[in-house]
Amino acid sequence: MSVASRPTVSFDNQFSRELAELSLPWQAEETPDPHLLVLNEPLASDLGFDSTWLRSPDGVALLTGRSVPDGATPVAQAYAGHQFGGYSPRLGDGRALLLGEVVDDAGRRRDVHLKGSGQTPFARGGDGLAAVGPMLREYIVSEAMHALGIPTTRALAVVGTGRSVYRETRLPGAVLARVASSHLRVGTFQYARATGDTDLLRRLADHAIARHYPHAAGADNPYLQLLDDVAASQAELLARWMLVGFVHGVMNTDNMTISGETIDYGPCAFMEAFDPATVYSSIDTGGRYAYGAQPHIAQWNLARLAETLLPLLHHDQEQAVELATTSLARFPTTYSSAWATGMRAKLGLPDTVSAKDADPLVDDLVTLLQQQRADYTSFFRGLSGVVRGDAEPTRSIVENMTGFDAWVQRWLELQPDADTMDRVNPVYVPRNHLVEEALAAGTDGDLGPLTRLLDAVTDPYRERPGLERYAEPAPADFGPYRTFCGT
Ligand code: AMP
Ligand code: MG
Prior knowledge:
This protein has 487 residues and is an alpha+beta fold. Among the domains are: 14-183, no CATH class; 187-338, no CATH class. The protein is 43% helix and 13% strand. It contains 18 helices and 12 strands. It has helices at residues 14-18, 41-47, 51-55, 57-63, 132-147, 186-194, 198-212, 222-244, 294-313, 317-329, 331-346, 355-372, 376-387, 392-395, 401-412, 418-424, 432-443, 448-457; strands at residues 11-12, 23-25, 35-39, 75-77, 81-83, 86-88, 96-103, 109-115, 154-166, 170-180, 246-247, 269-270. The strands form 4 sheets. The chain has a 6-stranded antiparallel beta sheet with strand order 1-7-8-10-9-3. A two-stranded antiparallel ribbon has the order 2-4. The two termini are 37 Å apart. The structure holds adenosine monophosphate (AMP) and magnesium ion. Residues 254-255, 264 line the site of magnesium ion (MG).
């Protein structure tokens, strides 16, 4: 077999060039027996890669960081972060590398990043590795989020390394190749600010503006505009998470992007029975990152970002604080309005319905959902059936049918549109029991369940015969769900 020895794509290293203080050149650890487990062919071709080449030994070497393409300078990125509220001044990529950036034909710059590629100077005693299961989880959930239209990092590939990883047991190791519009985090700004070097902070902010919010450069106060824009992107993102029932699980400031993409899929999950107190992370014992707490936590994280920007907002600290406070105070309104717009779409309400009619209906639905503990995804998808005259499947999953019937009657009077609803209420989300099934099989070398689950969740709005089990909640014996982070 003859294969090209070079990628068809050229890499750049703008981040490490412009912000050398924020990264350390590093290289990936050797992989004893690299083998491709899953490749995202549409994303590969979107980036300009030839999938046949990526599947070749040279391509797999690129996907594990063992061969460095021209123009790339692999680096471990430095960042700080508040983890569960406690500040760590030096986190950084302990087991990851930014390989470089790829600029596509449309001029869009994207990071290619590796996770599980070995210890770096930021490893802090960690082994620098990742197990197959958690890397497949990130692949499944991030691709599902993308298909749902939610801003997110993407998964390009998972490669098994042939190396064992020791957690509670011995597990096969893997490297995830991740694609993001950047890996700038709130924690990146915290790190830059803590150096005390205002010039570095300004260069970081300029880099973020150029990359994500170029129009801010022309604003009266570009750095205030940056804060406004990040806050608006995060408010929109959080509304999207909440509308689809997504629980991130570890909303530390190092896991919140400047771009507004979802990042770092650890102990994340999709909620089944509606309950704002839902927590999946085994380490989140206090419920800090529970489903219903997420918008508030996002605003808390943005306050940490605002603190780092103070020296750039105004030379007078008091005035800087005032500007930041005013900017952040808009977050609840931006969030609520994005959420209300999304809820109206989920309920198929025509534009002619006024907020005066829609808002109480939505409020009552939230109360009803909480009393019913109905499966969140099935409930909303089923509502279009109610409009079409088939209420039974949805009635059968609620506990209080009288309350539900009364609510439905009020709602139907507003003449909801079933087709609109089917475009925004997914049939298939990566349900916890299905994800676990796919990860367990994948860990044992059987990628069939993963492939079938990906088929369902990457085309989430189109109901297809034969995929019924992918639309159903977990069986009762699945029990309360917990996932583990950082593994
Ligand atoms: P995460 O929970 O994946 O967001 O990671 C939080 C921090 O811990 C980051 O600085 C990671 O690089 C680091 N980290 C997590 N797992 C490992 C590991 N196995 N080895 C080294 N560093 C790790
Ligand atoms: Mg992280």
